[in-house]
Amino acid sequence: MQEEFTQILLNAQNINLQIRQEAEQKIQNARDSNPVLLTEMLVKELNDEEKPIKSRHLAGIVLKNMLISKNKRQREILANEWISYDENHRTNIKTLLYKSFNSESHIIRNTAAMVLSEIALIEIPKNCWGTSGISDMLNNIEKTTNPDLKETLLTFLSYIFEDIPFENIESQISDSLRIICQELENQNESIKKSAIKAFIHLISLSEKKLTNIDDINFIINLILQGIQDQNIEIASLFYESLIKFATVFYQYLSDSIQKIFNILISSITNPDSQLCIKAIEFWTSICEKELEIQTKLSTNSESKLVYHNFISQVASHLIPYLFENLQNEYELDENEWDPSKASVVCISSITSVIGDSVISIVSSLIETNLTSSSQKQQESAIICFGSILENTSTTKMKPVIEQGIPIFLELFNKSNQQISKWTSWTISRICQFHPESIINQINAMIETFFNGLTMGAEIAINICWCFHYLALGLGDPEKETGILSNYFQNIIENLFLASDRDDSDETNLRVVSYESIIMNVLKAPQDCLIVISKLVPLMIEKLDIINKLEVLSDSERMKQSQIQSNICGILQSSTLRLGVEISNISKQLLESLFNVLEIEESFAHQEAIMAIHSIMNQIGEFFSPNIPRFVEFLIRGLKSIYQQNLSQISVEVIGELFRDFPDYISSRSDEIINLILEILNFPEFEISTKICYFTCLADISISIQVKFEPYLDLVMEFAKRICELDFNQKNVEEIVNFYLLSKAAFEVFTGIIYGFSRVNQQSRIEKYIKQMASLIEKISTIPFEFQDVEILQSSCGLIGDIIQCFGNDMKTVFNPLLIKELIKMSLNTNDQNLIETAKWVSSIF
Description:
The protein is mainly alpha-helical. It is 71% helix and 0% strand. It is globular, with a radius of gyration of 32 Å.
């Protein structure tokens, strides 16, 4: 049987599709019928030194996939399934996996380490791994003289440290650090590389345990010694550990920072070295850390965070070296990461930390090189100038920009494509971050931009962004006229010409051109509306032509869909600007948009629905004859669950139709509710992706009132899953996710109460009130520092809705201690509305 199983595993890797699929199906059938037996056969295959490497390796991968999934819910299911197996069976699997650590094949050893680590990550948090935790593995690292086994043990620990929660390994962190630091000095390069990888993942776990400055300085010196290793791969890994260590233990770096600077600068000044990028990235990471601390200190003046101001101290010494890297030529693909690109990012990051102070540091470098006869020096100056624009003030930059614009325009018009490309990039960033600085030279710039739209595609794209950011920064739809009013029609016409260039298909030019048109339409002042009104029929005509194109290939379909999407975006933005005036042409416009939806293979359905939705909002009741047709497309969109954006926008519009046009959609409520409930129970989606679907039920329940009753049990079951959601009450991301779900649940609860009470049928939902109360009570258990005013308001508001609907007697369903805590937290906020609501709730209890 095992021999036959080996062949199945080999067949699952066969180049013949039919053979491969048949083998994969056999493995799946075994998984479905007897997973315990399958795990046993897989681990035996992996452990058998006489079997082919290919079958053994796949056996390990299949076994791993029986333990882990990217989907959180599925991951929990798989973990529980593994724990449900007999303990002796699990022990046998782990024993054979550990035995494979001694395999002659590196691939098999690594695969066994990966699979065993997944088992450990399941069992350790559930206290099923054993009382010693990973101590046995640590001891074996110290005892073994087998270099392959030592390397594999370190690889196993690397996988563990990458994913295990701190609380599950806290007691073994000190021993782990001691043993792994010993192996960082191992002379065997394979062992050393595995030790560094494990160390990198261990750093974050060590933050609370490693506080002795002598130990920290010892480790830093160990790392600094490592980054000078003659083996580039090892030195590179040590650089990664330095970046991670310095970020986590930033507060302890003051004794070492000068030494770090001296060692790293030798790599930065050697652009041919593979380590140059790593050394630059170290300083970028310090920038990010200091920026993070600045942000926290600005919001909490009493914070005890340590801020060393390293970047301010090194900037004037570091930036000239980074500037030199901008001038070097690299024989790399244009999109490949190199020291020049890393230097650009680092200069920009330094600017984000020190702000206007960077201007005096770079000014002489830019002035000297901008007027140089060397193209590379000019290019470096232009790039450097563009890199400091984002985080400097317009007050300080305006005179510098005004002085530089004539030079930039001259370089743009007279230089080669490379200089023009970087000049247009820098000017686009000026338009983005300091648009007010170019007002006095707007005429010359606009004319230059029009010329730029006819140049190379990269340059034209940058110019499209110039127009985009000028509209964003200088436009104002509330004003009667604006700085760009006189140029508006020419801007739109030239952007359209750029979008129709022959090379727009080969680049991103068409998309960027249309996005720029959309921004100009949205931000145009009132005196440009006449141009926008003339734009709509032209876009309808263009869309009709695109809709009727005969499409013969996937690439042609993709091109058609892209153009449809772009035109729909312009029509949507134009509708928003023209308001009710769009009704003059709405019939023709809607027909063109519906024709996009008629093309089932089109990828532009989301944009078409959004454009139709905008028209619906503008023309109100005049839209009602189109609702039956629109609903058909929305239901089709709702069913497109693997196109989540389309499905979600469809359900959001459906909810709005139930709110604003209930008489035209209520007849489809059963079909829609069942679809939504099906999606809510779809196992492949995280619960957080289902919020908009759940919220839609609130709109439907208000609309159809007691007709919603047959679905109450299913809806409340989903709400129960939200209430039972397990999350870390000190993890901000998990709390935010829970709050979003809770907000959706509160909307549904409120919708149900309102819908039934409107027709005096609240008694039908009384049995669900306790479940509603349980979610409120769970909210009250979250610490105050993680509370959200909106959620507290929703909690107190729902209490009010329940009491108003059912009377004071219903207060007995609430836990008075938890409600008291909820009231206390609400009263301690600065939100006056919430405080008033909390006082009223307090008066009831």
